[in-house]
Amino acid sequence: MRYDPTYRTGMTVQTIPSPRSTLAEIDRPPHRVGGYHEFAPPPDLADALEALWIYETLGIRLAVHRVVPDAAVSLCFMGTRALDGSADASRLRLIGPVAAPKLFAPPSGHAMVAIRVKLEWCRPLLGVVPSQHMGDEPCYADIRPDLAAPLEERLMRTTESADALRLLVAFLRERRTARLGAGAAAGAGAGTAGGDLMRLRVSMESLRRGAGAPRVATLARHVGVSDRHLRRLMVDETGISPRHFVRIQRFHALLRSSDLAPRPSWAALAADHGYADQSHLIREVQDLAGVTPTRLHEERVAE
User: Fold this and answer.
1) Which CATH code is given to the segment(s) 189-303?
2) What is the pLDDT of residues 238-265, one digit of tens each?
3) Which run of H or E residues covers position 207?
4) Which of 23, 28, 153, 265 is the most buried (most CB within 10 A)?
């Protein structure tokens, strides 16, 4: 993987307002699927992060979890914690964009604490290019030892997932402040690599609007480049085409809704999420998840 010095399913839940918060301080439990808990990012990082999440097998019935396509990168501290909470066997890994569904069977005692970073923010915050890590889970220290080593050392001293999550939030907050300050000092602007990254941020945030998102050609005109340039920029940086990115975003929005329903009405959800009809929704879910919507929902409920 090239070193550049410049630089897992979603559910909307409670906001963690600051890195000093702990999970125990949240009034209501987060939305969850089995051992998976997802939290909204802090407000000051919401433009750069998709979510914060924790997956733990302690105290739950072990089940095979279906990992679905994901257009984000997770910085994840993962491994098996000892009974005393020590995390010496855990490592800080980068979970690249997930292109295809797969089954994951976590061992007993397995814990994952992570932050899902929006693809267009991976280069400035994590120092990595998402397209170079599609489907991979490398150790972060193998890619950016300068950033990973001190953070991983602190993470290994934690005994609670909440503490590890706070460290990850603090790390990304510091990186965001430092990189944005460096960009402003350098005067990055249109026609530069910094300008292209800004175009990418504006365009991808617009595409996240789902059915209300503008067409790529319209976005290209808005940011002052050609349609072809914007498509190539997005694929080169993220590894995902604009059309496929929109499909994955819509699929995750569908999951957020169906996870809350004991018996989802797929026809109603199709209308709510911009699918042409129920048949279109079924085809899309089968293509992205590898199973029918009903089967996927049953699997998630069973966890």
Assistant:
1) 1.10.10.60
2) 999 999 999 999 999 999 999 999 999 9
3) helix 193-207
4) 23
